[in-house]
């Protein structure tokens, strides 16, 4: 007798032997027991999960000489012929090669005749989605009202390609991928029956490669026996499959978690020197990160992670050295680098950059932690020892003269140490009375206000007003004109509610000195802000830069929190937040 491969030799012959499809076998058993068997079935699912095998078992159940029964005898002529694929009343049709309307017309003619010997005439059409539209239309009426002795069983891997008119006439079963644990157990029993020595780790490698398909797993085991002989070593199996040793992947990730750039690059160079496809290594790295993330996030991850005991121990060691937030950021960066690595002409460089970026990203603090630190600083009242070096005391302001209105800066006086960030004195903290006076003059007389704008107005403690211009200023001469000076005194008396002395003089050097002092004060303040350790920590965390330094008004930290909760926004849009 000719040799039969394992995929054929180990095909299940009863419902009890089917692996991983209990929801299908239980339903079919009950239907046969209650004599409620449909006239048309649709089996859909991935390749190698048991669709055709269950179709043959169902045919044996319906045509067994001791049936209909959920447990066919396997020894009667019908059971033996169905097992051998040569039963005259069970027709297996390949939908890919018999997909024309003429083939379906021939089938329609044949279904009219009674079975030659058995109880039912059964048509098993594999890959039924390959039928043409005309063929499906020709099958509709027969499928809806077939003769009582006919049963149709359709199998497909792409049910979405089947017309709804066909789907509505069938009892549909969706087959699941077979769990890796079930594949390992079944392959172990096959290897024992064939007297093949293979470790459980090797069986797990085959199960991972099969990706839920029992037929693929059996085919891989067949190839491994041909490659290695009756003793299959793990190294030989990995070499045959082209798998990457998970120990190397774990070494790379261990270096990334430890932020050891040299060890990481050395391990990747070893991968390159071994001739391993770096693109395949990237996908294996991604799968390993996924397994670590499952270990970190799920209480009972054993059924979700396909790994041997040795691999599981390494994964658990890596999982213990990283937080879930860090792991999610690493996984997201690695996943988003697929185009850079897979489509790159230089995948080694792209992969090195990705791993180094993962190290840098691991150091980053999440925004939630930064906001929590700011809240803690707010509750403690400031930065503590750094506060005096951060914000110099505000300059002294003289009290306004009696009867003279005083103005506060818009938005309120900054609160020292509000929300843990010390306030910076506003440059407009002094001289606000003179600003109000200039605004009043400009409103009453735009021409005169324009002249004053080229000088400076100072209000003395005794209520006197000095309008100072640089020596030889044209605007000073214009304002000293008799009518203009008299009009200025009238407006000053109207503003202050009484007659006040007004002096127009040259005082450019004094103005220049005041501006220079203010510039120096702002520069000192900026240097203190730039060298503050907390500010530097925030800048380094976001890899950013300080654009501007402004006083933080009351409620400023609450506005920052609202910006953060609302999503990306311009932190300087309201003019109050410190960037």
Outline of the structure:
The protein has 579 residues and is an alpha/beta fold. The chain has helices at residues 6-9, 22-33, 51-63, 77-84, 101-110, 133-144, 164-167, 180-193, 200-210, 214-228, 234-241, 246-257, 261-273, 278-297, 309-320, 324-336, 338-342, 347-363, 367-380, 387-390, 432-444, 446-453, 474-479, 482-496, 508-530, 533-542, 556-566; strands at 40-44, 90-94, 121-126, 150-156, 171-174, 197-198, 231-232, 456-459, 465-469, 502-506. The strands form three sheets. It has a five-stranded parallel β-sheet with strand order 2-3-4-1-5, with helices on one face.
Structural summary, described in words:
The chain has 579 residues and is an alpha/beta fold. It folds into five domains: 6-174, Rossmann fold (3-Layer(aba) Sandwich); 180-241, Helicase, Ruva Protein, domain 3 (Orthogonal Bundle); 246-363, Zinc Finger, Delta Prime, domain 3 (Up-down Bundle); 431-506, GMP Synthetase, Chain A, domain 3 (2-Layer Sandwich); 519-566, no CATH class. The chain is 53% helix and 8% strand. The protein has helices at residues 6-9, 22-33, 51-63, 77-84, 101-110, 133-144, 164-167, 180-193, 200-210, 214-228, 234-241, 246-257, 261-273, 278-297, 309-320, 324-336, 338-342, 347-363, 367-380, 387-390, 432-444, 446-453, 474-479, 482-496, 508-530, 533-542, 556-566; strands at residues 40-44, 90-94, 121-126, 150-156, 171-174, 197-198, 231-232, 456-459, 465-469, 502-506. A five-stranded parallel β-sheet has the order 2-3-4-1-5, with helices on one face. Strands 8-9-10 form a three-stranded mixed β-sheet. It has a two-stranded parallel ribbon with strand order 6-7. Helix 8 crosses helix 9 (200-210). The protein is elongated, with a radius of gyration of 43 Å. The model is unreliable at 382-432 and 569-579 (pLDDT under 50).
């Amino acid at each position: 007798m000719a040799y039969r491969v394992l995929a054929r030799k180990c095909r299940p012959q009863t419902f009890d032997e089917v692996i991983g499809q209990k929801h299908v076998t239980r339903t079919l058993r009950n239907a046969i027991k209650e004599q409620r068997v449909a006239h048309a079935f649709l089996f859909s699912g991935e390749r190698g999960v048991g669709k055709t095998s269950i179709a043959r078992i169902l045919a044996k159940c319906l045509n067994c000489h001791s049936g209909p029964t959920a447990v066919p005898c396997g020894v009667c002529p019908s059971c033996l012929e169905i097992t051998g694929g040569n039963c005259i009343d069970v027709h297996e049709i390949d939908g890919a090669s018999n997909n024309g309307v003429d083939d379906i017309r021939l089938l329609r003619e044949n279904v009219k005749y009674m079975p030659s010997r058995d109880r039912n005439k059964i048509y098993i059409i594999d890959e039924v989605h390959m039928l043409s539209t005309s063929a499906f239309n020709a099958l509709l009426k027969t499928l809806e009202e077939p003769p009582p002795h006919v049963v149709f069983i359709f199998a497909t891997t792409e049910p979405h390609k089947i017309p709804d008119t066909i789907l509505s006439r069938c009892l549909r079963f969706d087959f699941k991928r077979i769990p890796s644990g079930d594949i390992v157990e079944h392959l172990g029993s096959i290897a024992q029956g064939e007297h093949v020595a293979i470790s459980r780790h090797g069986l797990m490698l085959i199960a991972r490669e099969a990706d839920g398909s029992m037929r693929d797993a059996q085919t891989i085991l067949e190839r491994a026996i041909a490659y290695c002989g009756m003793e299959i070593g793990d190294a030989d199996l990995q070499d045959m499959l082209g798998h990457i040793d998970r120990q190397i992947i774990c070494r790379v990730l261990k270096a990334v978690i430890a932020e050891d750039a040299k060890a990481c690059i050395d391990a990747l160079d070893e991968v390159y020197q071994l001739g391993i496809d770096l693109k395949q290594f990237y996908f294996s790295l991604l799968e390993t990160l996924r397994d670590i993330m499952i270990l970190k996030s799920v209480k009972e991850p054993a059924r979700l992670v396909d790994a041997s005991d040795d691999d599981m121990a390494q994964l658990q060691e890596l999982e213990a050295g990283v937080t879930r937030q860090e792991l999610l950021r690493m996984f997201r960066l690695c996943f988003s680098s697929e185009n850079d690595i897979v489509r790159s002409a230089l995948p080694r460089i792209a992969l090195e950059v990705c791993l180094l970026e993962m190290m840098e990203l691991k150091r980053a603090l999440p925004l939630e932690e930064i906001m929590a630190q700011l809240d803690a600083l707010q509750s403690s009242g400031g930065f503590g020892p750094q506060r005096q070096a951060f914000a110099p005391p505000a300059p002294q302001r003289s009290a306004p003269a009696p009867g003279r209105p005083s103005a506060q800066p818009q938005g309120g006086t900054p609160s020292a140490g509000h929300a843990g960030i010390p306030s910076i004195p506003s440059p407009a903290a002094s001289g606000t009375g003179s600003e109000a006076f200039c605004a009043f003059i400009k409103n009453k007389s735009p021409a005169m206000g324009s002249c004053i704008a080229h000088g400076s107005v100072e209000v003395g403690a005794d209520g006197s007003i000095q309008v100072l211009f640089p020596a030889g200023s044209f605007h000073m001469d214009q304002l000293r004109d008799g009518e203009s000076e008299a009009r200025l005194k009238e407006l000053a008396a109207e503003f202050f509610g009484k007659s006040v002395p007004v002096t127009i003089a040259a005082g450019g050097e004094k103005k220049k000195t005041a501006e220079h002092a203010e510039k120096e004060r702002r520069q000192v303040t900026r240097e203190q802000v730039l060298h503050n350790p907390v500010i530097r920590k925030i800048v380094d965390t976001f890899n950013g830069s300080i654009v501007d330094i402004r006083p933080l008004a009351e409620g400023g930290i609450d506005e920052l929190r609202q910006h953060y909760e609302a999503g990306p926004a311009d932190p300087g849009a309201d003019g109050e937040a410190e960037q």
